[in-house]
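Appendix B. Worked example

We walk through a single record from start to finish. Start with the input: the chain for Major facilitator superfamily (MFS) profile domain-containing protein, Brachypodium distachyon, length 359.
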Amino acid sequence: MVGGALADRYGGKKVMAGAAVLWSLATFLTPWAASKSAAMLLAVRVLFGLAEGVAFPTMSTFLPKWFPTHERATAVGISMGGFHLGNVLSFLATPIIMSHIGLTGTFAFFASLGYLWLAVWLLNVESDPIDSRTISKSELQLILAGRSGSKVKGSKFPSLREVLSKMEMWAIIVANVINNWGYFVLLSWMPVYFKTVYNVNLKQAAWFSAIPWAVMALSGYVAGASADFMIKSGFSIVRVRKIMQSIGFIGPGVSLLCLRFAQTPLVAAVIMTAALGLSSCSQAGYFCNVQDIAPKYAGSLHGMTNGIGTVAAIVSTVGAGYFVQWLGSFQAFLTLTAVLYFSATVFYNTYATGDLIFD
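Next comes the structure step. The output line below is what the pipeline stores for this chain.
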């Protein structure tokens, strides 16, 4: 939330650059910290998490400024596609890199990539297209004409009480919570699931765990482009957001219920891939929705909702084992997750809006 507020106030370019400096430094220091003590390692990884937590809220400050409403979901799809592909590439490349330059060298390599990206960022990116020296006048006019939100500068940020009094905001919060719950259940427990249910060894499970994220990168772009196409075709923003969010929750929910019928790990992998691919439609749903209702404060509000959603991610990741033990099986826990998906779909469709709420 702090990162989003800083980005809203000082511009996304500076805040993202500062975050990149810190997360790259934390990456570089991780092997050294591990050699010192567990407390030092924990401190460095906390720094890494705090710095990377700035990324999504800061992205939400860029999108309303750089993209018209009818292009915003596509931009989110492309950005998140990079996030997912980065997971896949690092997941597959790290063992190879480590075999050549060792553990410490691998962390140094990824840290150097962060600083290389930072140089490109500082030389080519501006917080607002008005300040860009490379954008054409015609493109700038297109962006400015397609902006939503208040043209008044200096208005006061809404109080926390006012923010939490809006059911439209709660629709986004609940969607973020359930999306993070399901996402991190699959991210953290998929290899364990394959090992426990199908006795697939960890090397094979690693491949099963990597493939869905690549599919998610592609499906996220398709979802964003489809959402923008519907808006340009005359669909209202709220209708598009609800359609995409419904697909993003009902699809994974049904997929998780279908896992009980999977007889082989290959079938289970296909079903989980479908679950994650369909869940990426949420990027064109609640993820974009905060930019619809509060473009001027998108970074701050995205940071707040994402912070709450992160708590759900921690609970689902840490508590999944306890839930499985309590409910008696992995399938029972996945059924619970499916029920949460369906319930959140109803809540979001009841209260979400595409109108400007915070001006």
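Two observations about the output. The chain has one domain: 2-147+159-351. Residues 2-147+159-351 form a domain with the Growth Hormone; Chain: A; fold (CATH 1.20.1250.20).
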